[in-house]
Please model this.
Amino acid sequence: MTCRNTDLPCLFILAALAILLTAFGCSSSGSSPQPQPQGVPQDLSQWAPEGPRTVGSYEYGVIPQPTAFRTMHAGPNNTDNVWVALAPRLELDWVSETSFSVPEGPTYDSAGNLYFSPLFPQSPAFDISLVSLDSTGARNWEIPGDGLNAGSGAILILDDPDNAGEQIIYHATYTEGMAIKPDGTILWKEATGLTLPDVVPGVRTPAHSFGFNYHPRTDSVVGVTIAGEIFAFDRKTGAAIAPLGQVPGDPAVSNDIGLPPFVVDASNALTDEVFGKTPSGGSFYETIVDVIFGGGSIVTNYFAIDPNTSRIYVAATAPDEDDGTVDGESELGAIYALDLVDDGDGGLEFTVLDSAQFEGGTGSTPSVSEDGQRVYVSDNVGNVIAYDDELNELWRYDVGSEIAASIAVSPDNAELYVVTRRDVFKLTDEGDSAILDWTADLSLAFEGEQDIEVVFQALTPTITANGLAIAVGGGNLLGDRAIMERVGVGLLDRETGVLRSFVEGREESIAVTTVSPDGSICTANSPVRRASGKALDSEGTVQDILGGISCYKPVRNDLLVQEATCAAGVRLRNAATVAESAPDSAAQDARQVEVLIDQSRAALDRAVDDGDLTETAAAPLASMIDRAESDLASGQLVAAAAELIAVCNAL
Model:
């Protein structure tokens, strides 16, 4: 009996046979026993998936497999989870487009190109709505802003089901939506129906778009703005498929950022010098901080769409009157579930299906579990709140400090990763409650640096096959507030919370820790905390702030091969134990391992090119990887796991 690589029912019949035959000392392909996987080396992470993973009921026809960030938080459900391994050794490779402040993005296509939209480009020469970079940081092309761009969030990348192997880039400003080929050819460009409001000096514009997300049921792309307007275009044609909708809520009250006025004034002056002022005459520093803390906005972050049900989840504010005082500002946060539904006349309209409110506001993006059964959001007083898909509250967990970003949701082991201004926490969702597993130990970052008084987390973590990709800041204390002066990225162990590797970078980001298919990291440069660090630098030791994109490349690719093959091996070892009882879970594990095999093979080639492995040493490893791929394709999960862990141990 033979199976194609994609013949999943056949694959798991063979997997079950392999398990049974192995139990009796036999092999499904002959009389010799199958090789048994050994343990991973003790200097690697001992984390492993246990039992069935959470699996969605959707296909990867338009939605790309999560091999990289294809939108703000990796995929449409905002889990900040990718299937590839992060390189355990990185170095800063390049910094590009330093004139632009980029608070959102970047995203990657399958060819390794990056895309971002700058915030408030300043002069006619920089009036740009969208920039494409190649993998070296060189500009491929740009889309003019035509005076209409107020920044447009992360760029959405979708697969083109009509042209195998090709992708399309989707970009939403406040006034326009567009679809573009990776070579810059515009496929369609259509008006959103929104008009830029007049510029009012001293008043922040409500005209920011958070970009597109994908709505599978209608095959459309949906955009949401900071003022809560919501729009949708047909993915193929760009035709508007519904009238403009509105997310409920009123502008949020502003929260005290907790910094003395002299710090704010000095930081404003510095960003004015580097990036200029916003169209209304505001400073980039105070404008971004105000958005982060919710002031004047209805929606302050990206939104989620559950690919299983196409429900749209938006974290926003409650209507003004719901806080008991009608004063034009909302003191309550809220989360809404919306959808495109029949309007009764044969068309579609946006409708709120469910909602929930909570004390305080939120700056987080809703995160939806892979199966769509859990929705997570954070408030601004330290709670992670878990809802079911109809927004009935299941539990909340107080981490003790305001949560700084969105919740990263793993499909394995019910794991959640949460960050505050200082710390990274691992929680486990136990159904009707959550438990704290660990608080990260970041002490190895900037170890021995005499000018660094405190280290702290600096960005939303990304879940990878071999750990968490994180950013770490270093600086000094002003009272009890950490002032960032330096920043870098690293690999955090999912089992222990210990920082396994770290490399210093150039500039901070308030966006996301984006991971690419080769295990590298790119971040959008948006100095806010480091702007304060530089503004307070009396000795001239803090590097100047800058914008653009920073990318860190893998080095010691032989170590990346080790990490990726071990991650794949332990995943398959677990998959073999659930192949009969949870075939959908094992099938998803097999898909992820196919990705890790491709990543391992590419990293092995780079290791030879870089001189970290000789061709003689690499050849048997390549053969083992090939055999693992063949075993996986024929459903022999235990044998494939053994080959992959053997590669890991050989390195």
In short: Residues 35 and 120 are 59 Å apart (CA to CA). Residues 1-36 have pLDDT under 50 and may be disordered.
